[in-house]
Amino acid sequence: MSLLKCSSISKIFGTIEALNNVSMEVNSGDILAVVGESGCGKTTLLRAIAGFETVDSGEIKIEDRIVSSGNVHVLPEDRNLGMVFQEYSLFPHMDVESNIIFGLRSHDPKQRKNRVKEVLDLVRLAGFEKRYPHELSGGQQQRIALARSIAPTPTLMLLDEPFSNLDSVNRTDMLNDLQSIIRDSNMATILVTHDKEEAFSVADNLAVMVDGQINQYAKPNEIYFYPKNYRVAKLVSNAEFISGNVNNGVVNCLLGSFSYLDTTGKINSASEVIVMIRFGDFRAVYDPNGNFFVSSTEFKGSHFVVTVKSFKGSLHIKCSESLDTNLTVNSKVNLVQLSSDPLLVFPKIAKEND
Amino acid sequence: MNLFSANKNSYRMPPFPFVFATLFVALIMLIPLFYLLLRMIHLSVEDLLVLISPRAFQTLSRSLMLMISVTTLSSIIAIPLAWITARTDLPYRKIWTILIMLPLVIPSYVGAYLFLSVFGPTGLFQKVLESLFEIQRLPDIRGLFGATLVLSLLSYPYLFITVRGAISGLDVSMEESSRILGHNRFWTFMKVTLPQLRFPFVSGALLVSLYTLSDFGAVSIFNYNTFSWTIYQQYNSLIDRSISALFSIIFVLLAFLIVLIEFKARGYQKYYRTGSGVSRKPKLIPLGFWKFPVYGFLFCVIGLALLLPISMLGIWLLKGMYFGDSVTFSWVPIFNSIFVSVLSASLIVFFSFATAIILVRYSVTGNRLFESISYLGFVLPGIVVAISVVYFAANYAGIFYQTTALLILAYVILFFPVALGAIRSVLLQINPRFEDAAHGMSHNYYSVLMRINIPLMKPGLIMAFAMVFLLVMKELPVTLILGPLGFKTLATEVWSFSSEAFFASAAIPALMIILICSLPMLMIIIWDKRIGD
To answer: What is the pLDDT of residue B12?
Structure first.
């Protein structure tokens, strides 16, 4: 049974459609990551679920209870949610213990103390009860914020860019901890983030939001390999996009002719398209008569990243090369496809130049 | 914020003129302290009897009572207004904010006179009631009640400014966390929002209590003998000036005590530096039906604190002219007021600029000690500063006695801390690496000062100038005591005309003060982008 169910919710701020007909479900124990650029509506969606924003139409159900609709609005404090904010938001005038107790319904001092100890163990900060927020590092503050929000055992956990203020080491640690805590406690979780790696690594499902709409809702690997449109492809990959045209079942572009795959179903047999070139799809091969040249090489420890440019046009493609590569800056090269997998193509969009 | 305080110049000697200016200020700041110590050393048994006399006790308890009641009433006015203008969808919030702050420009003696003339036993209000209900006499508002009312209406802006600034700087996600954790709007306000306003509230309350304690105008008009007024009476009676000196000692000790208590009450100030600042503007709370009581409250406060004084002055003036009273108008006090205000403000801004540079950028011996001395002026009431400066001039600097120079010296002692506070805080926020970079581009010390420091510190410098200008303009007791014979300022004109009941003549300088003070005040408000939406 789905724990959270949003059915075609919409929200308009002035003239901006922050949420446009958004529908989705999350099951107990599942993590849904909502990704998108800033301003795409992902934070509004989270805040609507939390009850900080009303919805204009549609409805939000938590455990089969309507909490938001055009004429119902259950207050945030009555929704039994947990939420972790980007800014940690620990109360500065309370120590860690009081911060955690703040959300507990139990009034029994012994039960409270036990719960504080439990959740501090969970976030691996046992013994921090009497510390004040200003005495903790950013990573510790965010762990306490997480402990505080899981202490009342909510059924649904909302995470609003919880790791964006942390450095990469802290972030990886927290991600791993978070994942196991959520699985163990069987909460449904929504993680809002602009960081695709973060989303890929923890989420069971991914929702990609563009301009207030969920453009694609699927498993992370499905979204990665089969993005439904150009905007989604741009958001979830590090790929380069070059123009080309399809004809007779092949796509022709600056790199040659290749088989293609159309995930959008909107491409006619002969039309202008955008071709998606992923990092690693091609490698550079030395060729004195090549149409391309190496513009820079970066040593990455286990391999080189070689940036290849074309003599004409603005194309530049990054390739991964082994450590014994003989390519140097200005070497003439040709680009060779590594596998025979079809390249993804999307309909040409008038606004985009590349 | 102590952002860059760790970066002190070590390779460069502090510039001589600045060191000189700093030492000079330090010396003159010591004058009142020196005077009070001298008095204490020479205390006789009789003096000690005066110190524990019923009269001293009465003055003390009256001062304390007034201070507590004014702080309470101005909190009741200021905190809701701060919250309403920062967090609700009140229409025209920026304009309301400006109007709420403007009563700062009305001197307390003007406000008190006008209140008395309207709400006094046979004032205007009684006349209206008489014609309607034949009420012959109203209860006398003189005493604690009237003084509290007037001083609260004129000093609540201090609290309003500090608390409002803090409310708009609060991290909204704090309150949202509390809601998510199951607490409703009311408990969230009580348990999460209010505790975070404690520090700014105490700072504002400190300003209000010191303002009340050292007020001279309103208490004298409402005949409520607090320290300021008693000391002035004793001083003017010329019979025994030692009583005024003795009372000054108690007065300053009391002020110190209050500062100490309030510093303790500030408590966990350091806790307010966590988190990464404000990320989201708070959602404005729709007032809905509450709009009407809010408007009622706003009209009451602004009506009493701003509209009533200004319109009464207008009525006095028109009435006087209509009945053919000899309305005296002279340019001399206007010129004098502007002259001393501009001169003192410029001097004080220069001194505090120099001092701020030395304190923030150089590690000089005695730095900390000087910092404490320079804040003395905050606790020293005008009347005590005036008396000690007179004593100093009479005994050690006779040629300055009865000169404008001495008057300005007293203003410097009194208002230097205000300017230093404003200027020091902007300097602390300027990264010294800017200066290093300019030196690296071969600019010498003064060139860097002119092209880097001063332009970057401009908001603080202007703020300091405007504040001091306003304070000197309104200042009364020091001007009365130290002004050379026949030296008239707008403040002394209001005082002397109104004590002789020439209300129409008093109205002109009073209106001039309000008008001239409003200009820098409006400048500060419009300059400060944190105010309003």
So the answer is: 67
Assigned token pair, A315: 């194309």
- Give the phi and the psi of residue A309 in degrees, each rounded to 5: -120, 160
Residue A234 dihedral angles phi and psi, to the nearest 5°: -65, -40
The string over B245-273, giving b where at least 16 C-beta atoms fall within 10 Å of a residue's C-beta and e elsewhere, is bbbbbbbbebbeebbeebeeeeeeeebbe
Asked if A60 and A220 touch (Cβ cutoff 8 Å), the reply is: no
Q: Is A89 on the interface with B (CB under 8 A)?
A: yes
**Beta carbons of A271 and A238 less than 8 angstroms apart:** no
Please give the backbone phi and psi of residue A86, each rounded to the nearest 5 degrees, phi first: -55, -35
Contact at CB, A50 and B283, closer than 8 angstroms: no
Tell me if ipTM is over 0.95. Answer: no
Interface of B with A in 273-292 (CB under 8 A): 273-277, 279, 283
- Averages of pLDDT over runs of 10 residues in chain B (533 residues) are 46 78 86 84 76 83 92 93 88 86 87 83 74 73 86 92 82 87 88 84 85 85 84 73 76 81 63 45 79 91 90 84 71 88 93 86 68 67 86 80 87 87 77 71 74 79 87 88 85 82 80 87 68 44
Beta-strand relationship, A250-253 and A205-210: unpaired
* Nearest CB neighbour to A89, from listed B182, B198, B275: B275
> Is there a contact between A93 and B268 if contact means CB atoms under 8 Å apart?
yes
Q: Which of B180, B182, B192 is opposite residue A91, by nearest beta carbon?
A: B192
**Does B274 sit within 8 Å of A90, measured CB to CB?**
yes
Question: In this complex, do B271 and A93 lie within 8 Å of one another by their Cβ atoms?
Answer: yes
CB-nearest to A89 from B173, B191, B273 is B173
Tokens 């999350």 belong to which residue?
A26
Q: Which residue type sits at B336?
A: N
Say which residues have a Cβ less than 8 Å from residue B418's Cβ, sequence separation at least 6. B377, B378, B464, B467, B468, B471
Among candidates A320, A243, A311, A253, which has minimal Cα distance to A284? A320
- Cross-chain residue pair B178–A91, CB shorter than 8 Å: yes
SS3 A106: coil
Which residue out of A43, A46, A52 would a mutagenesis test of the B interface target, given it has the greatest number of B Cβ atoms within 10 Å? A52
H-run or E-run covering A297: strand A292-299
Strands A240-247 and A271-277: antiparallel
Q: What is the rounded CA–CA span in Å between residue B329 and residue B342?
A: 22
Mean pLDDT of A28-47: 90
Size of the A and B interface in Cβ pairs below 8 Å? 92
CA distances from B126 to A110, B121, B137, B145, B302 (A): 65, 7, 6, 17, 22
* Secondary structure in 3-state letters for B141-209: CCCHHHHHHHHHHHHHHHHHHHHHHHHHHCCHHHHHHHHHCCCCHHHHHHHHHHHHCHHHHHHHHHHHH
Chain A interface test: which of B188, B194, B274 (most A C-beta within 10 Å): B274
Q: Can you tell me whether residue B453 is helix, strand or coil?
A: helix
How many Å lie between the alpha carbon of B85 and the closest alpha carbon of chain A?
21
CB under 8 Å to A26, separation ≥6 — which residues? A2, A3, A4, A32, A156, A188, A189, A190, A205
Per-residue model confidence (pLDDT) at position B296: 92
Q: What is the pLDDT of residue B408?
A: 92
User: What is the value of pTM for the model shown?
Assistant: 0.76
Amino acid letter, B113 = Y
Q: Are B382 and B226 in contact (CB under 8 A)?
A: no
Chain-chain contact of B271 with A133 (C-beta, under 8 angstroms): yes
- Which of chain B's residues have a Cβ under 8 Å away from the Cβ of A158? 180
**Please, which residues have CB within 8 angstroms of residue B28's CB and are 6 or more apart in sequence?**
B409, B412, B413
**Chain B environment of A91 (Cβ under 8 Å):** 174, 177-178, 192, 195
Spatial distance between the Cα atoms of B155 and B209, rounded to a whole number of angstroms: 9
A76 at interface of B, judged by CB pairs closer than 8 A = yes
